[in-house]
Amino acid sequence: MHYNHYIRLLIENIPYFLLAALILTIFLYILLRIVFCKKKPLAQYLWFFCFLFYLQVLYLTTLAHGSATQVTRLKPNFIPFIDILRVYDMGLPKMMLQIVINLLLLAPLGFLLPVQFRKFQSFPRTVLTVMVVSLLIEARQYFIGRSADIDDVIINTVGGIFGYLCFMLLAKITKWLQSLGGRGKGKTKT
Description:
Order of helices and strands: HHHHHH
Largest sheet: none
Strand content: under 5%
Mean pLDDT: 82
């Protein structure tokens, strides 16, 4: 996998991603605020913007290249940790880079799903969704001539779990800060 190619592609397309996410966020704001008269905190719109931006980056890095009509298909790996050991044969730095990239790929999804959608504040639901997204990415990659690997699914899912744990930490910190702000309110000294 040529990571420099993806990094260059991401950097070149960031302005377009930001613009598209901004337009969709403004559209949602207008739709909810003006048409349906629903008031939501600004933070929800900012998280929605982040979610849209992340989905675009995820699409570009995992699904936007290749063609389903390609004849050459790499053999998929269904045996856990075999490809990681093969990458290790190419050197520890390459193996670590592969693991870190796969951990980071779906960590934002594990974080942003429960931030954006209340029903994903359930650990099993979020982890299952992250795993299914990873499986779909790997299946699509197989059909466009890229490698499909169970190791990626496992590591992506662990990354999603890490993202969910970050969400839980943020939720606890937010709740704690709100409790600090609520102290003393409504209480009178006697």
